[in-house]
Design goal:
homodimer; alpha+beta; Metallo-beta-lactamase, Chain A; 2 domains; 7-stranded mixed β-sheet; 9 helices; globular
């Protein structure tokens, strides 16, 4: 027997579905599963600045033999399992950041782009929806700061129909990165993607140098190796400091835990490792909160030394701000 | 000079505020800081069940000398600082859970109650707002399962005007807990609060025994010590298992890291410690995900042994479900 219960009064469209029967013959009718994750943003203060981490989602893919280029796949699987992750696959998160400095609204890196949403069945390309959920209007963004030119950082500069996603923003890019990736003699792979994305912006960018303020309160530091012009960014306000590391490491359970491991995406692996060790030694010594583009959302934590390696201690979620 | 910029077109009510001047005399006018945290809920699947962690918020208070009854305050401060928390104060989160078993919508523990929202200036008493943000109608809840009778677990059973907060739900309570706290010869402290809360429900509860299914898919286990009838709950569906530990430990950085430390809230500290070690030894050996009422939101992780102690490895946030 199928009974209409009070649940049907609340369930809306779901009320038209047939109500399955429990094994004991009773009609059962729990509220339908929501099937939808919470909006992917998280806020915290850095002095008087307000930071909103706005996730672009996460991709899961089979673990390639050479995902870590200098250790055996078995060792990678052992590290994944030690971190309570499944073996033989990899999940990588993408976490752009929005900083309201008090005088400017600044997006730092832009995710895989809305064009990736459908292709990935909603796994990535979430940033624009999450910006909206966070109450951030893309038209109000004053500046977009790019750490480096890989697609998961720049593709969100443009909409699915190749229009500027932040039409009123100055786009700031590392000068060394611009020089490398706009070499007219190169056209393969990421060179083509760089041409496509910045071409859609009419190549209207402002190049910035490391060790200078990019925007008041946001200082770029050179952290090369992952790409030639890769930059990280230090947010500073009052006594508070947070470091946005960008891609100094990929997943912390593998590469922060094992800083000597080389991810396939690092273009100069030895330089990337040297950058990594120097950066984390400073973060650990000064107890600076590190925001990692590829750390699991909300993607912030402290780095502690563990012998020759490191361990990430994620921040505690603050349910207020 | 105060200029009206495009920002004012978007800023709504904020547009009437005076726009401060930057030190260089330019008008600046970033989008106003949001000042509001993301909705505090998080979803994951346990087999075919859908779990929604719905935070009630977090309280911060000065660290009392006897917060940990059997170690010196200096040791507690050292542990706080080792976990990148401030010394001399304590922040405790409250994380009730909603389980959609497929046939029942079940709330497990209820937070500090909406009455605490104003008194705490919004720090706690957030659960009802977060349930609404999660799209969960309190009228649709079929069952409320209580782990034990401390106020932060039962006060949310009633609204600010002392009406049942889940008017259509069966309220399930541990039989041993009911027996202890309804002793008619006692009237002080928490005994009075228990009388107040359950009185508002007309004392209409269903008592449950440990080691039995409370609701299909949710099994109670006796984990006494924190209170005499304290229960935890095992969610089980298909091959998946998650343990809702309730108050087997308070903050993991102190008491999971140092299982021999006794929090002032444990009524029988020796029994609580024995329960704790037995429970975590099992969780670590079987690699079961543990959901902790007082863990930082979203309050789930794996427990690993570290000599005679333990370490919590928080789960990675999944931006999809």
């Amino acid at each position: 027997m199928i009974e209409l219960t009070r649940r049907h009064l609340f369930a809306g469209a779901a009320a038209t579905a047939l109500v399955p029967l429990a094994t004991d013959g009773r009609a059962f009718a729990a509220a339908p599963a929501a099937g939808k994750q919470a909006p992917g943003f998280y806020r915290f203060k850095v002095g008087s600045m307000e930071v909103t981490v706005v996730t672009d989602g996460a991709r899961t893919f089979p673990l390639a033999d050479n995902f870590v280029t200098n250790v055996k796949k078995d060792d990678v699987n052992a590290a994944l399992q030690a971190a309570y992750m499944e073996k033989d696959k990899m999940t990588i998160a993408f976490n752009p950041v929005v900083v309201n400095t008090g005088s400017k609204l600044v997006v730092i890196d832009t995710g895989n782009g809305p064009g990736a949403f459908e292709q990935s069945k909603g796994a990535v390309g979430q940033m624009h929806a999450n910006l909206a959920a966070a109450g951030i209007d893309r038209n109000s963004v004053d500046a977009v700061v790019i750490s480096h030119f890989h697609g998961d950082h720049i593709n969100g500069l443009i909409t699915a129909d190749n229009k500027p996603a932040y039409p009123n923003a100055e786009v700031l890019v590392p000068a060394a990165e611009w020089k490398f990736w706009t070499d007219p003699s190169k056209s393969e792979g990421n060179f083509a993607n760089v041409k496509r994305v910045f071409g859609a912006l009419g190549n209207k960018v402002t190049q910035y140098e490391a060790d200078k303020e990019v925007v008041s309160g946001i200082t770029a530091i050179a952290t090369p190796g992952h790409t030639p012009g890769h930059c990280s960014h230090i947010l500073s306000s009052g006594n508070a400091t947070v470091a946005l590391q960008a891609d100094i490491t990929n997943h912390p359970a593998l590469f922060l835990r094992n800083p000597g491991w080389h991810v396939t995406f690092d273009m100069d692996a030895a330089m990337a490792e040297a950058t990594r060790r120097k950066f984390y030694d400073r973060m650990a010594a000064e107890k600076i909160t590190v925001q990692g583009f590829h750390f699991p959302f909300p993607a912030a934590g402290h780095v502690e030394k563990d012998g020759n390696n490191y361990r990430l201690v994620p921040i505690a979620w603050n349910p207020s701000i």
